[in-house]
Every structure is written in C-alpha cells, then in structure tokens.
Write a structure and sequence with these properties.
The protein is mainly α and about 210 residues long. It is about 60% helix and about 10% strand. α2 packs across α3. The longest helix is centred in the N-terminal third of the chain and has 35 residues. The chain is globular and about 45 Å long. The two termini are about 35 Å apart.
Length: about 210
Amino acid sequence: LVSFLSAIPGVGSVAASVISEFVAIKEGERVQTLIHDVHAELTDKMGKFERPDVQPTEQLIYLADKWLDAATREFAEKKREALKKFAVGILLAPAEGLDFDETEFFLDQIVSMSSVDLLVLQSLNSYNESVQPNASDFFVELDNLGVKRDLIRGSCNRLVARGLAFEEDAPAGLIIPPGPDGLKNQRQILKPHFEVSSLGRRFVSFCLA
C-alpha cells in the first residue's frame, strides 16, 4: 500500500508517509497488547502448575519469530486469541514435549485460516458425531453471530483440505418413488457430514481450548 501511494504524483509521498507511520503504530500496539495478554495468562497458569524450564532452542526461537510476525499483522480478535493460546502452549510445554513440525503447522494454520474457519472448527469439535453443515441445531453459536450457511459449508471444505476435519457420506433419509413398486425401488439419500480429525482435535486443544 505504501509503495502504491508513493507512486501517485503530487500527494503520493505525503500520503505514504502518513500511512506508513499509522501502520507502524498499529503494529506496535498489536504486539504489545498480545504480549501483555500472553504474560497475564502465563502468570495465572504458573500459579496452578509448575512452570517448566523453557530453553531457548533454535526451534523455539524460530517459532517465536514467526509468532511475532503474525502478531504484528493480525487484528481479528478470534485469531489473536488463537495466537495467544499458541504462545502460552509453546512456553509452558517442555522442549522435548513439543512436536516441532506439528507445532509449526498449527501456527501456519492460525495465520492462514479465517475467523469463521476457527469458529466452525470449534463448533464441530464440540460434538462427538459427524455434523451436517446445514443443521441449525449444531451451529447455534454461529447462527447467533450471523454466519451464513454457505460460508459454513465452504469453511467445512477448507478444514477438510487442511487435514483438520474429514468428510463422509451419511444417510439422510429415504425417497420412495410413487407407484406400486415404490418400496422395491426405494433409494437411500446420502448427504455429506463433517467431523473433526485427530489432528484437528489436537489443534483445538493447543490453540483454541
């Protein structure tokens, strides 16, 4: 954006300077606020559990650097909450207890997922059975937030693509054609249902619980 504004003759450089300063201030505020929230939750948890000795390993430093980059840019409250949970998780977990590849995968998912994706994943995770994405009783929270059903279905498909959920066809009822041979020709209708995968449940536990 700054580069684009700079290219505008006359007012471009002035506008770019103002925008650049504003962005720097907002980014600094985002990081400071999130670090403060992480510190507050760590302080609370350390009062209940013995704090592990956190060693500044290369892997932890790498994850912290990626986290700071995400914290600088992210403004959506739901994703910032996930970033906070992630930071607390890696700081409380003993170094040998972290699966680096999986932990980095979780951080990458937070960065690239939408807030709706996180909400849908949480809703799916709260049920122990597969869920049809147009069933209103399964998504009361999303209904109250005004999330459209086509967005829910799209989000379910994206969660499957990420490996955080899986899709299966489940019976949704019977359609019996008219006529005396109706029962003989009855056919079962299958509709897609979605369920959180084991990887998705670990993601929820680490970043959203």
